[in-house]
Amino acid sequence: MELEAAKMIGAGLAVIGLSGVGVGIGNIFSSLIGSIARNPATRPQIFPMAMLGFALVEAVALYALLISFLILFG
Amino acid sequence: MASPLQQFEIHTIVPINIGGIDLSFTNSALWMGITITVASVFLAFGARRRALVPGRWQVMTEMSYEFIANMIRDNVGDAGRRYFPYIFTLFMFILFGNLLGLVPGAFTFTSHIIVTLALALTVFLAVTIVGIVKHGLHFFSFFVPSGVPALMMPLMIPIEIISYLSRPVSLSIRLFANMMAGHTMMKVFAGFVVPLGAATFGIGGLAPIAMDVALTGFELLVAFLQAYVFTVLTCLYLNDALNLH
Prior knowledge:
Chain A is mainly alpha-helical and 74 residues long. Chain A has helices at 2-14, 18-38, 43-73.
């Protein structure tokens, strides 16, 4: 029973990393909005880059999620 | 109720056992076959008429061609044009695998790390071999960062080598974790529908359904984005191997 409880706590702790991912994604989109507001003409060049950055940061969130799944179900 | 992870189970459809090795035809293999068929039909029939003023289907085929052609031109340059067939096949296979996996009841083979690791290791080996064939032993200067004092070299070279070797791992885990987490999340919300609806005379069940509809839209974006990221990173690795920094 204690092992079960420890697993639950561990899975919860594993997703603390998501706070950093939240900061990261917020940062990407704030810079995206900032740069498009400054120079709207650059939008076609900047937008794919922002999407690539978003996908890369989001993947980090999923690494944390994966660890928590491994703890819960592995 | 079924576990949200049950959708990732592999079932044997046609058992094949050769010399003690299990080579059974599974639902994973079936959906890979379906993916290849759909992608081939999409491209072959789209390119069949070759009209000067293209119809909708032909436009989609041309767009997918130009998308990858532009990606290679921007990231690798003209030297990368030889590798277009490989990168295009990789993109179409992952994209159609992700998209067909979103069909209810379908099996998403990209949510299995063995599939994505095989794809990523193929990319890794191919890129390394291309680099060694093109540059010979000079290729290993890739691991020596420029502008770093000689004192730091014992530290920097192992870091560079580890970061190079971790490429297939991060490439495969990114795709697999995205697909698995997305599908699990959709299943978790789908699991809320019946209990919540039973507790509130059917009204409460609408909220998780609405959430699942929104998530399906998001998953369509993720399916495309992850195929894009996988191919862009392949292009960047190829660029590293061809141009050495």
